[in-house]
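User: Can you predict the 3D structure for this chain?
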Amino acid sequence: MAILVLKTDDFQHQVNDVARQIVQYFEVMRHDADEEMSPDQLYQQLQHFFVMLSAAEVVSHASAELAQEHIGQVTEMGDVGLQLLSGFSYWAGLMEQDHLRDQIDRHTVALAVMLARMGGHLEAVDIVTDALARVANILEESADLEVLSTYVSEVLTAVAPAIQVDKDKRDANRPWRILILNHGIIATRSHNPDLMCKAFDDLERLLPDDAGDFFREGMEQMARLPYPSHVRRVVQDYYQRSSVRKLH
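Assistant: Here is the predicted structure, written as structure tokens:
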């Protein structure tokens, strides 16, 4: 079973189904929605989003030149979709429907991948980062984590350029930083040396100030947990490389 649904028709069908369930729980439990958009309002907006998503997919497949002209539209459309999914996630969590929130999390990551493939820029990095972390925590099989790691690579390249510049490094909890670090953790848990090297190279390039501590903590994890020897070797290589770089 695929960990993410990336075909537009299937994505819309499954998101619609989860959204309807959240609306039904809301109607039964009659939560106060004064401060947040209610699930039924979110559901109405979701239908409009599906129309935009289908149209954006058609444009992105038309030609590279045409898709380039519509990057702004795809980016805006993607932000709308991610905000809607975040709203559904909020209500699922508030009503303690964790199984529905888990599904929304997977669809959130799936939408981020879909937008990346359409050439859009991801601006709501916080929403994607939070959902991705919860999805990764649920997955246990190395094969699933391998697939997730490749998806994260796609998401990283699609993050809006203004965010990738990473000007304010004082905030250790900034979503861009957490996303990159989590990519390294997911790749490590996949036990795939090639994916680990890809994630670690990205970490060194995008977060040079954090790389040394990440690999040091990785070595501590290797000592505590029964990781395979080939995984230990990759982490050790990068740790030693970062230590040499730090000395210079």
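The chain has two domains: 1-138, 143-248. The radius of gyration is 19 Å.
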